[in-house]
Structures are given as structure tokens and as C-alpha cells.
Specification:
Layout lengths: L6 E6 L9 E7 L2 E7 L12 H4 L1 H5 L9 E2 L9 E2 L2 H19 L5 E5 L10 H6 L5 E5 L4 H5 L22 E5 L3 H4 L4 H9 L3 E5 L12 E3 L6 H14 L5 H6 L1 H11 L4 H8 L3 H13 L3 E5 L9 H15 L8 E3 L14 H5 L2 E5 L13 E5 L3 H4 L3 H10 L2 E6 L4 H4 L3 E4 L8 E4 L5 E5 L12 H15 L12 H6 L4 H7 L4 H4 L4 E2 L5 H4 L4 H5 L17 E4 L23 E4 L1 H6 L7 E5 L4 E8 L7 E3 L20 E2 L10 E2 L5 E6 L1
Parallel strand pairs: 6-7, 6-14, 7-13, 8-9, 8-11, 9-10, 11-12, 14-15, 15-16, 20-24, 21-23
Antiparallel strand pairs: 1-2, 2-3, 4-5, 4-16, 17-18, 18-19, 20-27, 21-24, 22-23, 22-27, 25-26
Helix pairs in contact: 3-18, 8-11, 8-13
Length: about 675
């Protein structure tokens, strides 16, 4: 029997995750035989998470889409398998009809999510930028909304190199859970701890990372800024602050003194639900620490006061003098700093676009949306107020979803197009955390009739050119590699010293990053915010006494990976503190209803001290074996930074309050 030697390819995980792990895939007979981490990667060092190792199963999963499907009536479930030629004809027919009736393509909208952050997957944005005026639909799961959430005031332009955290003498992990969401940071945390560093975790939830901590502070949600303000007050009043910065900013410092005098210590501690003993211990460690690192998680950005919170933590780091020290400062990366390729520019993403919000029901637009293209997203699961989102999609005459699985969003689409995985296409991935750039090689043929997004956009452009040659200016290339080569520019070269795909075929490259002092200088707007007003956090209303917190599951990613059985939970469950459960007559395993004035859902209760008494927690995402849609309970509330006029607003997903009752 002839032996077929496995061929090795270098792939890169394209999820919107800090690590962007490089993967060595072993391919036999056009199938994944084995995958392993790339030991040559300077940050991930050959380690993969459970989700990364599951890619071999995911690529050939029995439920993966094999062919294009069409249903005339959205949500009917009456799918008809069609050819790609038929699918493209349907799309072109809709586009031509829109152009004929409205004289433009403004009724054509793109909703682009963050399900794949590769340069290849900006090809859809690219096409929509080459067919005249169109509409860009934003939401909480759209990448542009996330990238711009903190941009208005540019609080932190860039964070330190992740590996430098091992030089810190105190590490404060604030609202982050790297043990689940950034596992490659953990070895650096352990190395710092071996060197004598203390680790403090501040989080309403007792996470896996909290188990590593020397001190865990379980504060009330939304009170992070209040706690930071309290710490600032103590540092200044005890004369343990960095005087060099404030010698240069005496006017701002005097204003800061005036503002911190407004803080009532007892009132703030009560608001945060933090003990004096915990605060005193943290302050003692801060006073003794030469350098403090602050790792800030995305959970802080899901509250209405997130702008004040981030500014307060940055100001705390400034007061202590951590901004310009090796191993110190704010570990909060600017993802837009990695968007340097031609098809990622603002002109392609937003130029000639009408911007609309998928959650804004007050503005339907004129002309109205007649066709929606969904890419790298599952808005029916990820957007707040899922019932309203579903109705919005149902009201659009023609919806196209490009995906690898029949997601809830795909189920209410007219046309479902199967697309390739990262093993079946060429791509370029840049990490927004450690700034490595790497080539993702095409290792496999497309799965059945799945096609890459570049192929789909190219075929659409060819057909549009036949009917509206003056409208479509999308450049046609002969291959994915040729298309990707066309996206390189001087900015890419200056940062990564690469000019084309060939330069990346041998190895990944680390971007040129300024030193810490340059990275974290305040912009003028951020300097002005030293004149901040101390702010306490919210409290639940009497009728809905529980915060409703919906973090990522450690073995899932938004609405991805839930069907791979990486964890035992087939259906959603709610975590409630044992004492809180007892007080309202709920036992472990009971079926309960969770409700507010927006919706009511039912699920099993799990009693655990992971959450405090005023929080109930449900892992967000898609549960294929359950009819429950978690985000039905979450209102579509938005909040910007102070003085922020940008269209990009933050969704206050964690400012949701509910009640719980036993059925």
C-alpha cells in the first residue's frame, strides 16, 4: 500500500482574539490529518487553546454548509439547494432592480462582523466601496463599532509589548480573564510572579484568572471607575504619587486635587461593595511597587460609564507613574493600529457610505434598506434585543448571509452562501495584541461547493461589469495571492518590513512599535480629561434586583464553537449565588424564568459563588440545542464617550437588570 506523506502548511487563527495563533497543519489526501501550534511563534510558542485544536473537527463537521441554499420566504425553512451560478444571478438581479428603482445602491447594505479579522475578509468591504454609494450597517458585533469604541478621546494610543509585563512588580488585571481569553499571557504572569510580583484581579465574577491572584477584589459592576478614583485619592493624600508628571502639568494637577476632594470614601466603598481591608492591602502594594501593569478587559466597555472608567484607570496609572516605565502602563491595545492594508483604510470602510445602526429603530433611512449582505457575523444572536433584530431582518426584502454553518441569522436569510475556512484560502493576519503579522497558507481545497469571499466578490464584480460597467470599479485579480499583494503599501512596509506575500512565506514578522513613553502619551483631548468628575456606579432598580452579565464561555467565541461539544453544557443555564437562590426559593437545578420589561426566558439554575448575590450570569452565544436567545433580555442602549460626536457608540450590554423566579 502506497504511503502518502503529510504536507505541512502554516495557518493562522483568524478569530478576533489577542493571540492570533499560528498553526501547523498536516494535510493528507486533501484532509487535515493533524494540527499543532507553531513553536517558532515568539508569543504563542506552539501552544493552542481548545478551540484551536478543534479546527480539524470543525473543518469537516457534519453540519457545515456544502452548497448555496435559497428560500423565497425567509424563516420558512423551505431551503432549495442551488448552484453558484443561480445564486449569483439572484444577487445581480436584486442589485440591478435596486439601482433601477432608486438610481443608486443606497438601499444595499453591508453588515460586517468580527468573525474573521483577516485581510482577505475585507474584500467584501472593498467591493462595496467600488459600486457607488451603499449603506454600512453597524452594531455591537460589527468590527468597526468595536474598533472605534475608545477612539474619540484616544485615551491610550497603544499599549506596551505584552512580554514586558513580566518586568512589573504589581499586575492589576481589571475586568479581564486571560486564563480563558488570552492564555498566552499567563506564562508571562507566572514569570512575573516567580520574580516576586503580586497579581491583583478586580472583577465582579470569580474567574479562572482570579485563581492565580494574590488578591481578588469582587466589586459591583460599573463601579470600576469609582474604585480607581478612590485609589487616586489615597495615593495623592498620602503623598505617594509621581510628582514628575504633575510638575509639568500643575494646572491640571490642582484641578485634580479639587475633584478628588469631592470623593466620600465611605460612600464610594459602599457603592463598590469593596471592604476597607481589601482596599488598604491594594494601596499598600501599590505604594511599595516600582512598576504597575494594568490589564484592562473588554467587560469594562459594556457599561454606560465606560469612558469615565477607562480614563480613571489611565489617570491612576499616571498618578502612580507607571506610563513610561518598562513593564508598566495600560495593556489595552488599539486594534485600528493593525488596519494598515489598502482594503482596510477608512476610504474603503466608510467612504461613500450611508451609516446606519442595526439597533436604531428610530431611523429607518430614506431610501429604505432593500437588500442586506451579512458577512462574518451572526447578528440575530450577537445583537441586543434579538426579537427586534429578527423583525428588522425579516422586514428587509432580500437578505444574503455568507457563513460556514446554518446559523440563526442564516435561517432567516433568503440566500445562504457557504464560505471557506482559513485552511481553504490564503490570508494575512495581524494580531492587535502582540503585533505579529503572518501569512495564512491555503492548505486544502474548498469544502464541497464552499467558496472564499474573494471568489464571491470577484464573480459578482465580473457580472456587475457586464450590466453596469460605469458603476463597478472593483479591480479583478487572477488569484487570492494577487489580490492580497495589491493590498500592501508603504505603511505596511514601514511597520513590518514586508512588501508582498513572498516576504511572508518564510516567516512571520513583528511590527515596529514605539517605546512605551511614546506609545502612551495623552492626546490633547485625553489631557483635558485629567479634569475628570468622580463618578459612582449604577445600582439595580428595586423591581429588577440582579445584574444580568453575559461573558464569553471559556470554550466558545461569541456564537462560534458552541456546536463542537468542547464543554458539557448543551443548553444555556443561569449562574446564581447560593444565598440569593435560597432567598427566593430556588434550588440548584431548578428551572427558572429570568425576566425584565423587555423579555422573559427560561433555563436551568446553577448555584455557585462564582457570582456575588446581586448578579446572575449566563454565557453568551448560540446554543443550537436550545430555543433560548440570551440577548432577548438586553436592551439596545448606547453610550458614547463624553464630548463624543462620533457615529460609533458603545453598547451598554452589561447595564441590563433582571429578576429571577422559580417556575
Amino acid at each position: 500500500m502506497r504511503h502518502h506523506a503529510a504536507r505541512k502548511f502554516r495557518n493562522v487563527c483568524p478569530r478576533n482574539c489577542p493571540s492570533s495563533c499560528t498553526i501547523i497543519s498536516h494535510i493528507e489526501k486533501d484532509s487535515i490529518h493533524h494540527i499543532a501550534g507553531d513553536i517558532s511563534h515568539p508569543y504563542t510558542k506552539g501552544k493552542l487553546c481548545a478551540k484551536g485544536f478543534s479546527y480539524a473537527e470543525k473543518n469537516n463537521h457534519r453540519d457545515r454548509l456544502k452548497y448555496p441554499y435559497y428560500q423565497k420566504v425567509k424563516g420558512s425553512g423551505k431551503y432549495v439547494q442551488i448552484s453558484w451560478e443561480k445564486a449569483l444571478q439572484l444577487i445581480i438581479s436584486e442589485i440591478l432592480s435596486i439601482h433601477h428603482h432608486f438610481g443608486s445602491l443606497l438601499p444595499l447594505a453591508l453588515f460586517k462582523g468580527s468573525g474573521n479579522i483577516g485581510v482577505h475578509h475585507y474584500v467584501t468591504d472593498d467591493l462595496f466601496s467600488h459600486i457607488g454609494e451603499t449603506t454600512r450597517m453597524l452594531g455591537t458585533s460589527s468590527l468597526l463599532s468595536r474598533l472605534n469604541a475608545l477612539d474619540s478621546d484616544k485615551i491610550v494610543k497603544n499599549g506596551p509589548v505584552p512580554s514586558s509585563i513580566k518586568e512589573a512588580s504589581l499586575i492589576v488585571i481589571w475586568g479581564a480573564n486571560p486564563a480563558a481569553t488570552n492564555i498566552h499571557l499567563i506564562p508571562y504572569l507566572i514569570e512575573a510572579k516567580v520574580k516576586g510580583a503580586k497579581i491583583v484581579v478586580i472583577d465582579p465574577l470569580y474567574t479562572q484568572t482570579a485563581e492565580l491572584a494574590d488578591l481578588y477584589i469582587q466589586l459591583r459592576p460599573s463601579t470600576d471607575g469609582a474604585l480607581a478614583s478612590l485609589l487616586i485619592k489615597h495615593l495623592i493624600e498620602n503623598n505617594t504619587f509621581d510628582k514628575s508628571f504633575f510638575d509639568l502639568n500643575s494646572i491640571e494637577f490642582n484641578q485634580l486635587i479639587n475633584n478628588i476632594n469631592k470623593i466620600d470614601v465611605e460612600e464610594y466603598l459602599l457603592n463598590c461593595d469593596v471592604s476597607k481591608e481589601a482596599t488598604h492591602l491594594l494601596l499598600t502594594w501599590m505604594t511599595d511597587a516600582d512598576t504597575i501593569s494594568y490589564v484592562i478587559g473588554s467587560g469594562l466597555q459594556k457599561h454606560s460609564n465606560f469612558g469615565h472608567t477607562i480614563r480613571s484607570i489611565v489617570l491612576l496609572a499616571t498618578v502612580h507613574g507607571d506610563i513610561d516605565k518598562m513593564g508598566g502602563g495600560i495593556y489595552l491595545r488599539d486594534a485600528k493600529d493593525t488596519m494598515v492594508f489598502n482594503n482596510q483604510t477608512a476610504e474603503h470602510l466608510l467612504g461613500k457610505k450611508r451609516i446606519m445602526d442595526i439597533n436604531n429603530r428610530d431611523y429607518v433611512g430614506d431610501p429604505p434598506i432593500k437588500m442586506l449582505w451579512v458577512s462574518c457575523a451572526n447578528p440575530l444572536i450577537q445583537e441586543p434585543n434579538s426579537t427586534s433584530t429578527k423583525q428588522f431582518l425579516m422586514d428587509i426584502p432580500f437578505v444574503v448571509t455568507v457563513d460556514q454553518f446554518m446559523t440563526p441569522t442564516a435561517q432567516i436569510s433568503n440566500l445562504i452562501l457557504p464560505t471557506t475556512t482559513h485552511f481553504e484560502e490564503m490570508d494575512i493576519i495581524i494580531s492587535w495584541w502582540h503585533k505579529e503579522i503572518a501569512l495564512n497558507e491555503k492548505a486544502l481545497s474548498p469544502y464541497y461547493d464552499s467558496r472564499s469571499e474573494w471568489w464571491i466578490m470577484t464573480e459578482l464584480a465580473r457580472r456587475l461589469n457586464q450590466h453596469l460597467p460605469s458603476l463597478c470599479t472593483f479591480p479583478i485579480y487572477s488569484s487570492e495571492e494577487e489580490y492580497l499583494n495589491a493590498q500592501f503599501n508603504h505603511q505596511v512596509f514601514n511597520r513590518y518590513s514586508v512588501r508582498n506575500i513572498s516576504d511572508l512565506k518564510e516567516r512571520s514578522m513583528t511590527g515596529t512599535i514605539p517605546d512605551t513613553r511614546v506609545q502612551q502619551q495623552y492626546s490633547n483631548a485625553a489631557k483635558q480629561n485629567i479634569d475628570f468628575n468622580p463618578m459612582m456606579g449604577m445600582l439595580p432598580p428595586k423591581e429588577y434586583p440582579f445584574w444580568f452579565i453575559t461573558p464569553h464561555h471559556p470554550y466558545a467565541f461569541n456564537s462560534q464553537f458552541h456546536f463542537l461539544n468542547l464543554h458539557n453544557e448543551k443548553e444555556a443555564f443561569v449562574v446564581i449565588h447560593p444565598q440569593a437562590a435560597t432567598d427566593i426559593g430556588i434550588a440548584n437545578g431548578d428551572i427558572v424564568k429570568i425576566y425584565n420589561d423587555q423579555a422573559c426566558i427560561e433555563m436551568k439554575a446553577v448555584c455557585s459563588k462564582q457570582v456575588p448575590k446581586d448578579i446572575v450570569m449566563v454565557y453568551q452565544g448560540w446554543y443550537p440545542d436550545s430555543d433560548v436567545t440570551i440577548n432577548d433580555l438586553i436592551p439596545a442602549k448606547q453610550e458614547g464617550m463624553s464630548n463624543q460626536e462620533s457615529i460609533f457608540k458603545n453598547y451598554t450590554l452589561y447595564d441590563t437588570f433582571v429578576n429571577v423566579e422559580k417556575l
